[in-house]
Design goal:
Largest sheet: 5 strands, mixed
Strand content: 35-45%
Shape: elongated
Helix content: 10-25%
Oligomer: single chain
Order of helices and strands: HHHHEEHEEEEEEEEHEEEEEEEEEEEEE
Strand order of the largest sheet: 9-8-7-6-10
Radius of gyration: 47 Å
Number of helices: 6
Length: about 400
């Protein structure tokens, strides 16, 4: 507080001196003795303006000293900013992003749209990329559509050249950045007869590639554009990309293999009381191999609509006999018999349902007594698939 008072006093005294015009030593001494005279001099408008200017200059110097220096690191570049605002920091980030894009080949490449480079091209021209002055990065197109280099051997005299150049390694993933790949030229039944100079490749956001081509080792060699990557990328889910000569490709609808599923089995003996799962040991039909005589369980090999039937024969008067069809653990249909007088009664039940692949179906003997022999075929279980679903 004492220092502040002194500073204010000195400032005011200087202002009073400057605003009063000519002041002799006695007057100055009077000002030092009588501070009230100083405040009186400040009433002068000119003195007041000068004082305010001095205070503003002092505040400016204090603010300049209090500015904080901070370091920002973005894209590997260190920036020093002094009290920057949010707008200035945003401008710096945008500037760094622009700098990054300037060095990224994904944003700076030359379009190479030569139809003769296509792997299905059989032009009589004999092009040679050794005559091209390669500079920078290139992106391959075919008739205005993005395409990429082949990753397998291309037949001789394709791509309008003698020895077509292809990429010996796979295209990189985007996180791999820029990679180096070997390039080979096919000639005289040797897919890598010409080991050309390596090139650089990068995958870009947007699922396309850029290449830094170099001059081939000799003529006639030329870089190829794989039309397979253009055609097969348009195939639907139910289609596959096929080719007879591995050069001309097309989308072809996949053939759905219709499976035949039929089975018929019998139990050549007697059943009494509760049998959790009847193991039909005599299997007469098992088209599709979906029924197991060891377990007595049918498992749907494919999704579709199935129809089942099961039967029994009983002869005990006053006793009911129930057989249940069990699908995925649920009892869904019953074959029921009840004999009221001494006689033999048979029963047959059917059931149709939709099953997903892997569904299980079997028959359980819940109560009563069933009989059969090797010739009678009275305790039976069978079914067929009526409609196959995709």
């Amino acid at each position: 507080m004492v220092v502040l008072a002194v500073a204010v006093f000195v400032t005011l005294s200087s202002c009073a001196l400057g605003c009063s015009g000519n002041m002799n030593p006695s007057e100055l001494q009077s000002l030092k003795i009588q501070p009230a005279a100083v405040f009186k001099q400040m009433k002068n408008p000119q003195c007041e303006q000068t004082t305010l200017q001095q205070q503003q200059d002092a505040l400016t110097q204090v603010n300049m000293k209090s500015l904080k220096q901070k370091t920002q690191s973005d894209f590997g570049t260190t920036l020093l900013t002094y009290g920057t605002s949010d707008e200035e920091e945003y401008d710096l980030r945008v500037s760094e992003e622009d700098s990054r894009r300037k060095s990224d080949p994904c944003f700076h490449y030359t379009v190479l749209d030569d139809a003769w480079r296509a792997t299905n091209s059989t032009s009589k021209l004999r092009m040679c990329d050794r005559n091209v002055k390669w500079k920078g990065w290139y992106r391959l197109f075919y008739k205005g559509k993005s395409i990429q280099m082949p990753e397998r051997c291309v037949p001789v005299n394709k791509c309008s050249t003698h020895a077509p150049l292809w990429l010996t390694g796979p295209h990189p993933k985007r996180r791999a950045g820029i990679v180096t790949r070997q390039v080979c030229g096919h000639w005289k039944k040797n897919c890598c007869a010409f080991k050309s100079s390596p090139i650089q490749v990068k995958k870009c956001l947007g699922n396309y590639y850029v290449y830094k081509f170099t001059k081939p080792v000799s003529c006639d060699l030329a870089y190829c554009a794989d039309v397979n990557t253009l055609v097969c990328s348009r195939c639907r889910r139910n289609q596959s990309c096929v080719s007879r000569d591995k050069i001309n490709w097309k989308c072809k609808t996949k053939k759905v293999i219709r499976r035949q599923v039929h089975f018929f089995a019998s139990f050549p003996g007697q059943l009494s009381g509760k049998v959790n799962r009847i193991k039909y040991s005599k299997v007469l039909v098992n088209e599709g191999r979906a029924f197991s005589s060891r377990t007595g369980v049918f498992r749907a090999p494919v999704s579709g609509v199935y129809q089942f039937f099961f039967s029994t024969q009983t002869a005990n008067a006053g006793q009911k006999t129930d057989l249940w069809l069990v699908v995925n653990g649920y009892w869904v249909a019953v074959s029921h018999t009840l004999v009221t007088r001494p006689s033999s009664v048979g029963s047959l039940a059917t059931y149709m349902t939709f099953l997903r692949q892997g569904a299980s179906v079997y028959v359980t003997h819940n109560c009563g007594k069933s009989w059969a022999n090797a010739a009678s075929m009275t305790i039976t279980f069978g079914g067929s698939m009526l409609l196959q679903k995709k």
